[in-house]
Amino acid sequence: MAVCVTLDLQVDPAKFDDFLAAVKGAAPDTRAYDGCQLFDIWIDQDKPGHVLFYEIWDSRQHQEKYIQWRTETGVMEALGSMLTAPPTILYYDKFDG
Fold first, then answer.
1. Any residues with CB less than 8 A from the CB of 16 and at least 6 apart, and which?
2. Are 58 and 2 in contact (CB under 8 A)?
3. Which has the closest alpha carbon to 52: 18, 90, 81, 25?
4. What is the pLDDT of residues 47-80, one digit of tens each?
5. Total H helices, total E strands in the chain
6. Distance between CA 82 and CA 19 in Å, rounded?
7. Is the pTM of this model over 0.85?
8. What average pLDDT does range 80-97 have in this prediction?
9. What is the distance between the alpha carbons of residues 80 and 7, in angstroms, rounded to a whole number?
10. Dist CA 42 CA 85 (whole Å)
11. Strand ranges (DSSP E) for the chain?
């Protein structure tokens, strides 16, 4: 069953342009990663540095494997150094009501 994942990020406004450049460079590999159905980046209109990653994955396991890969390659550490707080990651199941 597909899963929706959100990552709520607060980026240091002084590092925001560098963060966006890094994410833009990494996004094609994310979108091509096994199990990724959708990877969108949303920027808050009212809060500088507030970013939301909106993702759809084949399963939570696919997304967790992806995060492990990004951690091993150093991308998570590089992006994390630009944040002012730890990310909030939430997993959602779709309700077909």
1. 48, 49, 82
2. yes
3. 90
4. 999 999 999 999 999 999 999 999 999 999 999 9
5. 3, 4
6. 7
7. yes
8. 95
9. 12
10. 18
11. 3-10, 36-43, 50-57, 88-92
Q: State how far the alpha carbon of 39 is from the alpha carbons of 4, 7, 14, 26, 29, in Å.
A: 10, 11, 25, 11, 10
Which pLDDT score is estimated for 5? 98
> How many other CB atoms are there within 10 angstroms of residue 21's CB atom?
10
Residue range 7-17, pLDDT digits in tens: 999 999 999 99
What is the reported pLDDT for 56? 98
Q: How far apart are CA 6 and CA 48, in angstroms?
A: 18
Comparing C-alpha atoms, which of 7, 65, 70 is closest to residue 39?
A: 7
User: Which amino acid is present at 28?
Assistant: P
